[in-house]
Amino acid sequence: MNRKACYIWDESLIKECDRLPAVSNRASMVHNLIVSYGLNNNLKVIRPTAASYQDLKEFHSESYLDHLKCFIDIDEDYITNIQDEEYGIGYDCPPVSNIYELVSVLAGGSITAAKCLLLGISSVAINWCGGWHHAHRFGAEGFCYVNDIVLAIEKLRLKFNKILYIDLDVHHGNGVQDAYNLSKSVFTLSFHKFEPGFYPGSGGIDDIGTHTGRGYKCNFPLNAFYTDKTLEFAFEKIFPLICSKFKPDAVVMQCGADALVNDPHGGACLTEHGYIMCLRKVLDLQKPTLLLGGGGYKHPNAARLWTNLTAVVTGVELDENIPEHDDWPKYGPDYLLSVQPSLTKDLNTEQYLNECIAKIKCNLNTMAANSNQFLPSKSKVEANKNSTGEGIDIKQDTKNVKELGSQMENKTKDVYDFDD
Ligand SMILES: [Zn+2]
């Protein structure tokens, strides 16, 4: 498919994402850099629709969503109570005014991106405001209030039987993996820093899913300061293998920017080149692909990374000198687009990486052994829904696709270019 990639954007998405306490004002910085290069002219810009309560319920519990609605006007003096803490509100996910509205808009961005793939509007959809991989069904965690990724995957599953989820954030994508731990339909692959005391603490090499999903989860735990070379070595050995065994129908890639060098919450040493290498391999698959953001706490570097990745998708080569725009002073002292590599020693030896690769190959045989029980899934997030006895029938799924189609046709005014 040679159509332009979809880029999810409107003022409210940026405004709401800018309100996230951990990445305050990052979204506008990312978008402004993309626009400063004129990349929006090479993209099909799509206005997102905020997620409804029904949409959010596809993954999140009603009790959590209802609790979020309580945060209307929060001031600095607000003291969290026991109920807040039960839902993960406090500490790294502080209360925010109108947080329910914020999560509806954030999730709506990724759901809209998924709809673009579902309807064949494009083969690649981008939402740099999404990628909140730590949020759980019953609560917030690790700066993430809503798991837009699971919600987008659930939307994709209306059409695509098998989804490969790839997570490049420096932290293990625990929220997404947990949602699909029992699933054969969603394979999760996460590369992350893994050492004692490093959040979230899960994602070891033996963490491969449970029961029916066993072998369909893959974690590549890396030592601190991993570089592009290490990621490339690991990715090139594992990714093709998973693709040949799992044969995904669509790919969702979380491109969390906190594995970039010098991230305040990171501890890895990637530059944009590591991510670009992974992205190129994913695009080579020529499957519908959803690209999402995630962590990334040195905002100019997150903007650099996601602008670079957008350029790869659009096939545009960018000038190394960042164009002058309102945020330009924030890119000093060099005002360059590249993230500069570090001289810190990568603690991953070739021997360690080869040991991991051998173990993962062995784990993938578990999937092969388990796959004879494979049935194209018609269920929602199995791990959670099965426990509550809920499900969805395939007729309902098909009906939803049609409804989406007509809805999108009726909303062609929402599909527009920047100049309109
Ligand atoms: Zn992270």
SSE layout and pairing:
Blueprint: E1 5-8, H1 11-17, H2 26-36, E2 43-46, H3 53-56, H4 62-68, H5 82-86, H6 99-118, E3 124-127, H7 148-156, E4 163-167, H8 174-179, E5 186-193, E6 217-222, H9 228-246, E7 250-254, H10 272-284, E8 289-292, H11 299-314, H12 350-370, H13 382-388, H14 394-410
Parallel strand pairs: 1-2, 1-3, 3-8, 4-5, 4-7, 5-6, 7-8
Bound molecules: zinc ion.
Description:
With 420 residues, the chain is an alpha/beta fold. The chain has one domain (5-414): Arginase, Chain A (3-Layer(aba) Sandwich), CATH 3.40.800. 39% of the residues lie in helices and 10% in strands. It has helices spanning 11-17, 26-36, 53-56, 62-68, 82-86, 99-118, 148-156, 174-179, 228-246, 272-284, 299-314, 350-370, 382-388, 394-410, and strands spanning 5-8, 43-46, 124-127, 163-167, 186-193, 217-222, 250-254, 289-292. Helix 1 packs across helix 6 (99-118) and helix 2 crosses helix 11. Mean pLDDT is 89; it is low at 374-379 and 383-420. Bound molecules: zinc ion. The site of zinc ion (ZN) has 7 residues, from loops. Residues 169-171, 256, 258, 294-295 line the site of zinc ion. This is Histone deacetylase. Substrate binds at residues 92, 142, 297. Pfam families: Hist_deacetyl.
